[in-house]
Structure formats: structure tokens, C-alpha cells
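Sat 14:20. Reprocessing the chain from the morning session after the first attempt stalled halfway. Input below, unchanged.
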Amino acid sequence: MFAELNELLGASPQRPEPGKFTLLRDTRTDGSFLVHHFLSFYLRAGCKVCFVALLQSFSHYHIVAQKLGVSLTAAKEQGQLVFLEGLKSCLDLVFGEEEEQPGQPRPLQFVSESSPNLKALFDFVRTSLTPASGDSWKGPVLLVDDLGVLLSLGAAPVAVLDFIHYCRVAVCSQLKGNIVVLVHSNEDSEDEENELVVNSLCHHSDLILWVEGLATGFCKDVHGQIKIIRRVSLELTAEQDLVQIYQYKIQDKNVTFFARGLSAAVL
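Finished this time. C-alpha cells:
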């Protein structure tokens, strides 16, 4: 996890705030460093994590997590991390490389169905995060990277939004846990389905971290800017959302944040 980002968010792994839906949004850049931050943050916090990884392999996330001082293999073995490797699951379903076994969960079975719905994926998440007797983990966490892949696999926008709605009820409301979801967006994009999902999620998020590429193009000392949007209006309708804007630079094992125009290279 990145200490500077924790300071900006007022967050600590010693006391993770429960019941929150956090949207990670990126435009003209790659916001995956935020996924790695929250994955390592909640594992360090001792939370039970269900990671629906639709974009990369387990080995990719494991290598990055090791740089941040967390072992995903150890977390899986201890039962703290439930990892759904979407790439492998889809290949197995499409090419039939894995025989169907009675009672064996198939979270992404909608890929091979004529009328796809995400009930099996929701059941997988709920079962994974429902505390078992003797569990000592803190609040459950659902992490999704990246939600837009479900649209590419054939799920309708309504099905994706329904899935998130039911997850919010189960994880945030009933289990007092947290949800963190990454979506890619481009306001000039012709992908209307993706933009519909992104805009809908923005209206229902407690916290939005929106990373954008620089309008001026590539810079070796400033990799982009991040908007931290706290949705105060969800709780207090007369209040405006709180928005903070910073620039950032990604390093090998860290990310540094600074006010716009105040990078070390400029000063």
C-alpha cells in the first residue's frame, strides 16, 4: 500500500472504515496501481478479501504485491484471500478444458449461456465473504478489476449494475464490509454501455478516485492527476461533494503525490 495515499484519504489499516463503496476510475491512463494499493491495504488490515480479477493473472498481482510487502500466496493458504482468476476461468468455460463437476462453483458461467446473468458470480462473492464459524478476519472486502470486462464478455449493463447493487446490499449493508471496483472510462468514447455503467456507479459511490492522464501528454516526472471525490451529498443532500486534486508519480515500490505544479522536478 502507499502511505501517502492513506494520508490523503485519512485511512489506516489499523481501523478500516466499514460499509463503503469505492469507485476507482481511470481515463487516458492506467489506474491499476490503485487496485494494488487497496488489495495490500485490506490484506494488511486483516480483512477477508474476495478478489474478482478479470484483467490479469494471479502471478501478475502476486509479483506486484510482493513489492508492497504482501504475499498473496500466503493469504490464499490462510483463507484470507479468495482469488477468482477470470482469464483462466473464461478459457476453461469457452474451450471446455475443465469438466463440470456437480456442486463446483462456476462464477463466470454466463459466458457460455445464451441469456447471460451474473447470479452465479454474486453467489460466489456472497459465499466467499460470509463469515464461517471460527473466522477471526475483520470486515469482508470485495475487489473487482476491471468491471468493464464483464461487458466485454457479454453481460448487459443492467446485469452488471444489478450485480453491484446486490453486492452492496450483501457486503456493505449486511456484512458491514467494503467494495472497491475499478472501471476504465473515456468521455469521448463511443462505448455507450461502458459509459452508462461508469456514470451510474459514480452516482452511488461513497468515494471516487479518478485518475487521468495529463492533458499536455507524457511527462517523466508527473504521470497523471488524481481527483479524490468524497460523496458528502449522499448523506447530506444540501452539501456539495468534497473534491481534492493532486498529481502523482509512480515509482517501483511507491507512488508519490503532490499539489499540481509542485513536483520535485519543477521545484
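The first strand starts at residue 21 and ends at 27.
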